[in-house]
Design brief:
Aminoglycoside 3'-phosphotransferase, Chain: A, domain 2; Phosphorylase Kinase, domain 1; 3-stranded antiparallel sheet
């Protein structure tokens, strides 16, 4: 994975008073009345929620980094407007105030899967629908994304190998530094190098969300139905499997893949990278000794037996 570094860590990072927030928001939405909540969970951006249904994202100056861009997110969301079956926030305005970038958008209804109380059946249905939505996003024409010059990333099989290789090595180094025993029969380096050999010589890379995982995928409370995906600020070009692997549990990823392939199959080339991506995710679970470790071992056993 690309290393993150922050360009101006010493920059002041004040929380804006409500009057200043409304002054910015009124450029695009004169009807806005009040700030109802300030959310700093985003890390790189501070979020001001207005009237319960609008969101002003402000770049935090001390958290400015090359990988994340509000302009990139706005560009991506504009391209998704009107795409059937894709639900994302709608951009109302984008610009700068006091030299700080901001975006005003609609608030995604519902709650993140990470905190939602879902039955197994409703969770699977929501993730199957997520797979369908991701397939529609990945199948979009790519020219506009490329011409924007805003998305970094991978374009060749070598690029994809480098990304996975770096991620595997970071995981192995983290495991070594933790002092914990490796809880699988095949050591991390042997396992990762074997998985990297599955990546074919030719791949198709597209504009990715980057992390459509439990914290960025929303469902409607009560029904558990998928409501949409948020936070495209880390978007990049890469292999689609990297978007599909962001739910750690193998059962969740299987549901997402089922939705992704519901209306059209994927190629064997895709599936080879998918298996590599699953190995990376499973190794992460094992390294953390996560509660999903047993399921991760079972999936690794199955993948290695098939290959």
């Amino acid at each position: 994975m690309p290393k993150d570094y922050y360009i101006q860590p010493e920059a002041p990072d004040p929380v804006l008073v409500e009057a200043r927030v409304l002054e910015i928001v009124h450029r695009y939405a004169p009807q806005a009345r009040a700030v109802t909540r300030v959310d700093e969970h985003g890390g790189e951006a501070r979020v001001y929620v207005l009237d319960g249904d609008l969101v002003l994202k402000m770049q935090r100056p001390n958290r400015l980094r090359p990988r994340t861009s509000l302009k990139k997110e706005a560009c991506f969301l504009w391209q998704l407007e009107g795409v059937a079956g894709v639900v994302v926030p709608r951009v109302i305005g984008h610009g700068q105030a006091d030299g700080i970038e901001h975006t005003l958008m609609t608030r995604m209804p519902g709650e993140a899967v990470a905190s939602a109380a879902l039955t197994d059946e409703r969770r699977r249905e929501a993730l199957v629908d997520l797979g369908r939505m991701l397939r529609r996003i990945h199948d979009m024409p790519q020219a506009t994304f490329a011409e924007s010059g805003l998305l970094p990333g991978d374009h060749t099989a070598v690029d994809v190998q480098w990304r996975f290789g770096n991620a595997f090595d970071e995981l192995a180094d983290s495991m070594k530094g933790s002092g914990r025993d490796w809880p699988y029969s095949v050591d991390p380096v042997t396992l990762s190098r074997r998985a990297m050999r599955w990546i074919p010589d030719e791949v198709v890379c597209v504009a990715l969300h980057s992390n459509p995982g439990p914290e960025h995928v929303f469902v409607h409370p009560g029904t558990g139905k998928l409501s949409g995906i948020i936070d495209f600020g880390d978007a990049y070009f890469g292999h689609p499997a990297n978007d599909l692997r962001r739910f750690p549990h193998p059962q969740d990823r299987a549901a997402i893949l089922a939705g992704y392939t519901a209306n059209a199959p994927v190629t064997e080339s895709f599936m080879r990278v998918w298996r590599t991506a699953c190995v990376l995710t499973d190794m992460g679970l094992l390294a953390r000794h996560a509660r999903e470790a047993s399921a991760a071992k079972d999936e690794l056993d199955l993948i290695l037996a098939e290959t």
